[in-house]
Amino acid sequence: MERPSLEINLPDTHEEGKLYVVDSLNNLNKLNVCPDGSQHALDEEENTGDTGENTAGSNIRNQCLFFVTFILTLIVSLALVSFVIFLIIQTRNKMDQITSRLLSEKKNIEELKKMNNMILKHLNQSVIKR
Fold first, then answer.
1. Is residue 70 in a domain?
2. Are 75 and 63 contacting, i.e. CB atoms less than 8 angstroms apart?
3. How far is CA 122 from CA 20, 109, 126, in A?
4. What pLDDT does 10 receive?
5. Where are the residues of the annotated region Disordered (predicted)?
């Protein structure tokens, strides 16, 4: 039994077949390397015909944008943390003031109670003498 040959030796289709295989390998590589979101961006670049230099420039631009966004995020986070620390310190100071006022008022109330008791005693003694 003879097996039919799998190769077809047509000169025009041979070159197209090579290109098709290379393109298929590139697509397979993109699927393995790139996550779903970046695959769409790569397909768009491929469709627009970007060169390697433009892709490198775009990559650098994306990295710069990422770092600028990262630094801005850090600055905003630092500002928020500083503001929260400032609020905590202010709240502690206010609580200390309120505590000291309460203690002084407590002393004043105790003194008023003593004076009230003394006055009641004096009145009771004066009523008894009459």
1. yes
2. no
3. 115, 20, 6
4. 47
5. 37-57
4-16: per-residue pLDDT in tens?
A: 444 455 455 556 6
**Amino acid at position 65, single letter:** L
* 87 vs 31: CA distance, rounded Å: 50
Range of the domain at 100: 58-129
Q: Which residues, in sequence order, are CB contacts of 42 under 8 Å at separation 6+?
A: 30, 34
Is the residue at 8 inside a domain? no
The amino acid present at 108, given as its one-letter code, is N
- What is the total count of domains within the chain? 1
- pLDDT tens per residue across span 71-84: 999 999 999 999 99
* Positive or negative torsion for Cα 120, 123, 129, 130: negative
HSE-up (13 A, CA, CB side) for residue 64: 6
Q: Residue 23 falls within a domain, yes or no?
A: no
